[in-house]
Structures are given as C-alpha cells and as structure tokens.
Design a protein that fits this description.
With about 500 residues, this protein is an alpha+beta fold. Among the domains are: about 110 residues, Alpha-Beta Complex (Dipeptide-binding Protein, domain 1); about 210 residues, Dipeptide-binding Protein, Domain 3 (Dipeptide-binding Protein, domain 3). It is about 30% helix and about 25% strand. The chain contains 17 helices and 21 strands. The strands form 5 sheets. Strands 2, 9, 10, 11, 12, 13, 14, 15, 16, 17 and 18 form an 11-stranded mixed β-sheet that branches. A 4-stranded antiparallel β-sheet has the order 5-6-8-7, covered by helices on one side. Strands 1-20 form a two-stranded antiparallel sheet. Strand 3 and strand 4 form a beta hairpin. The longest helix has 17 residues. The protein is globular, with a radius of gyration of 23 Å. The two termini are about 25 Å apart.
Length: about 500
C-alpha cells in the first residue's frame, strides 16, 4: 500500500482506519495438539533508536516501548486502529470526572512467580507519580490517590479530570511491588508479566528475550526467542535484512523501498502513521513571534512538492494537528501554497530582509536535510533566508531548551493514541516553557476542559483548540508521515503499526 499525495485528501475516516490494519499473514500457523500455535524459532529485529533504559517509566522512546512491551504488560492495550482494549485490566470505567476504576485480570503471575494483583498497580502508579526524576512522571502529577478495592480492583482519583489516563497507561508496564526494595538492581534484570522473559542487555547494542511459557494469553508467544538489535544507521539495518540477519526493520525511507522490494525474501509494508511532521517556532523571539511572518512562511512552502518529489508519495497533506483516526482529528482547510501572497504580506509588514536559523536534529527524521534545503529554496524565492544548522541531537535539543533558534525541525508521534499528551506538552505554558514558549490562556483552558472522560466533550474542545492554533500558524504542519517497515517473508502475522512499534508477541517464523 502506497499512500500518494493525490489521493490522501480523499481518504475518509472509515477508509483510513481500514488502512491502519496493514499486516502480513502469509501462511497458516502449525497447530499443536491442544489447538494452540506451536512455539518455535527465533526472530531478530533491527530498531532505529538505541535503548537507554529497561525502566518502562523512564523514557519516551519508541524503540524502548517496543522492546519493553514484550517484558511488561500494561493495564490497557491499544490496537492499530486506536481502540483501547484489555490487557492486565479486564475492564475500566470513569466513576466521575476525576475517578477511574480498573478491574484486574486474575491468575496472572510475574516471571518470578509473584502474583499480579492490585498491589502491583498501586506501586507502579504511585512510583511514577512520586519519583519526579522519571521521564514519564509529568504525565501522572494529577493523580491524587491510588487505592485497592480488594485484590483485583483499583480506584484512581485525580486532582482534576484525567480523561486520557487509559491512553497513557498503554505505555506504562506494571511492576511487581518487590521491585521497590532495590529498584536499581531490579532494572538491571527486570521481571514483568509479559510474553517474553528478559535474558540479557548489551547496552547500546541489543536485548535478548526468551519466551514466557506461562503467559496468560493462550498461544502467545509464537517463537522461543526474540533479539532486538539497535542499529541507527538505516543502510546497516537494510543490509542486515537483505542478508537474512534480521527479520524486520523499522523507519525505512521512501528512497529505499524499491531496493527492498527487489530483494529476495523481503517484503515492504507501510501504513499511515499517527505522526505529524511539524516545524516549531520560538514564539517569544523576534521576528517569528509576528503572526504575519509565520503566515508568509507557511504560504511560501509547497507541501505537495515535498510529498511527491522528496517523499515519493509516502506522505499525506495535513488537515489537522491531530492525525486521522485519533480522537480530536477534524478536517481544517489545507494550508495553501501562494508565494505571491507571501511576498505581499512581507511587504505590508515591512520585512525587506529576513534571516532565520533553522535547527535540525541530525539524521533523526527521514530526508530531513533534503526537505529543509528544498524549503530554504522556496523561502528564498519570497525573500526569506533560512540558515540550516544540522546539529547532533543532544546539541540541538540544548538549543531548543535555551530558545536559541527561530525554527526547529520536529515531529510528533501520538504514541498514547490520544492528543492530550501532545497538547499538554506543546501548548500549555508549563509544557512549552523550554520548547516553543507558546502561551495562550484560551488554549490552556481548552486543554484542561478536554481532559474529562466524555469523548464527545473532548472532541468538541479539541476542535475549537485546533482552529485557534491553525489560524494562528502556531507551528508549520508539513505532512502526515507513513510508517514503512522492511520484513522478511519468513514472518507470519507481522503487523505494520501506525505508532512505529515493532511488536512480535503474535508473530511466528517459518
């Protein structure tokens, strides 16, 4: 499935969700005597980002989420079409706007034999709330109390509405309460309830996992062993896949698709991602704090050329800050390409010579340098000079925090499949103080009002919010990305995920 710019405008919600289930099912699985899939073989995956921690609460890495989802189960899982489904919680419901009740799965044990129960949930949630050094701690600061209701139910009370709690919980693996005795030692050799047991971790290189034969979900996992290798260089990942050393790789760029399709034993899968490629402005800084300049910049960019020529059709025009298929998506007028109007706005605003610094995180996003160079040429045609600063990732992020940039090449994958995380991070004063410096009291109010559990209320609030930031040109929204995977044709039942996760629990190998 190749998603071309020409047809993207016409893809409706129903059709888009149908695309979200893209997967690979090439043959029937061997069946054991008891009707369950026979477990055999090993799978090796090559991931684009190095994993820095084994603590599910201490990262926002897509690669780390992919790996740790095999070791730790969350309370709530999310499907490829953004439906929230039971994992360690059999059910959940809002009691009121500030209270959620979770009914837990019985008969589940951790890899060391410890039973999973409400004590695990209480420890895991209080830990991520109270230990503010943990990267995910900011998400859970509104939690007021986590209380047991017997051994298999938990009530979570928040200081203000927390309608996105189930979505955030898809990214938080449950821990055994015994981990509290020595957390440092625990996360050197972690124990979860997941389909695979932790075997070893070579920092910066690979993680090896072995099947959990007592997993609570029948017939899972399908293989005996999974190895995740961390290989940031796409050329190296691609070569290893073509050589048969890897069975799946993520983050394939459009220019390599035909090469992989022409490789023996290799398939290419793609799916519209829940990621918006966006560039941010430093909104407290002259001259980009001027709405007129931001409007002129947007008008000067031909997004369709980027999608068609540089992404080879593997992109979609943006009609909302929130991608299709997620709560909050709404269809807004596409950003037009009108360089003549851009010149008029600049002239009327008195801008005769504009020079802006554009910061990139080196090699983080596919084709980012070529795309930025193309945009620099477009802006040059209307009288705006773009100075491209292609910096090491850590250095670029330091400049973002310090605010020493005009524009910054950034993307945003909605990993919780809920927009609260995105808006809370980028459009509240507290969230944006070291990012864009965005501040709008009405937007802040709408973000808070959109946190109630009622999905209809949330949708309405997000639509109003998005119209404000859309019209204000608060960011540059360039395109929705397409997630592209290279997959060995030996794999059975691999699913190309919209959130870039590489999940192998249900995958078999021939």
């Amino acid at each position: 499935m190749k998603t071309h710019a020409r047809g993207a405008d016409a893809v409706g919600r129903r059709e888009f969700l149908a695309l979200g289930g893209a997967g690979l099912a090439l043959a029937a699985l061997p069946v054991a005597a008891h009707g369950q899939a026979k477990r055999s073989g090993e799978i090796a995956a090559g991931l684009s980002e190095r994993m820095l921690t084994l603590d599910p609460a201490n990262h926002y890495s897509i690669s780390a989420t992919s790996v740790l989802r095999h070791v730790f189960d969350p309370l709530v899982d999310v499907t490829n079409d953004s439906k929230f489904v039971p994992a360690l919680a059999e059910s959940w419901r809002p009691v009121n706007n500030t209270t959620w009740r979770f009914t837990l799965r019985k008969g589940v044990t951790f890899h060391d034999g410890t039973p999973f129960n409400a004590d695990s949930v209480v420890y895991t949630l209080k830990r991520v709330r109270d230990n503010t050094k943990l990267i995910k701690a900011f998400v859970y600061q509104d939690i007021d109390a986590v209380e047991k209701d017997g051994d298999y139910a938990v009530t979570v009370t928040s200081k203000r509405p927390f309608g996105s709690l189930p979505a955030h919980l898809t990214m938080l693996g449950m821990l055994p309460p015994g981990a509290a005795k020595n957390e440092d030692a625990f996360f050197e050799k972690p124990v979860g309830t997941g389909p695979f047991r932790f075997t070893s971790w070579t920092r910066g290189d690979q993680v090896i996992l072995a099947a959990n034969p007592g997993y609570w979900k029948p017939g899972v996992p399908k293989v005996e062993k999974v190895t995740f290798r961390f290989i940031p260089e796409l050329s190296t990942r691609t070569a290893a896949l073509r050589a048969g050393e890897l069975h799946v790789i993520d983050r394939v760029t459009p220019d390599l698709v035909e090469t992989l399709k022409g490789s023996r034993g290799v398939k290419v899968l793609d799916v519209p991602a829940i990621e918006t490629q966006r560039w941010i402005f430093q909104l407290a800084k002259e001259p980009v704090k001027d709405h007129r300049l931001r409007q002129a910049i947007s008008l000067a960019i031909d997004r369709n050329v980027i999608i068609k020529e540089l992404l080879r059709g593997y992109g979609r025009p943006v009609d909302s800050p929130v991608p299709p298929g997620l709560l909050g998506h709404t269809s807004l007028p596409l950003k037009p390409y009108d360089p003549e109007k851009a010149r008029q706005i600049l002239k009327q605003a008195g801008y005769t010579s504009v020079s802006l610094d554009m910061v990139l995180m080196k090699d983080l996003y596919p084709k980012q340098l070529e795309i930025t160079q193309a945009v620099a040429a477009m802006l040059g045609e209307v009288g705006i000079k773009l100075n491209i600063k292609n910096l090491e990732i850590a250095t670029a992020r330091e400049q973002r925090t310090a605010g020493t940039y005009d524009m910054f090449f950034s993307g945003w994958a909605h990993m919780p499949h809920d927009p609260d995380w995105f808006f809370g991070q980028w459009f509240t004063k507290a969230g944006s103080e070291k990012l864009t410096r965005y501040a709008n009291p009405r937007v802040e109010q709408l973000i808070a009002e959109a946190r109630v559990p009622d999905a209809k209320v949330r949708q309405a609030k997000y639509e109003e919010l998005e119209r404000i930031i859309w019209d204000d040109e608060a960011e540059l929204w360039l395109y929705y990305t397409v997630a592209i995977y290279g997959v060995s044709d030996r794999l059975r039942n691999f699913e190309a995920r919209r959130d870039y996760y590489v999940l192998l629990s249900d995958v078999a190998i021939a």
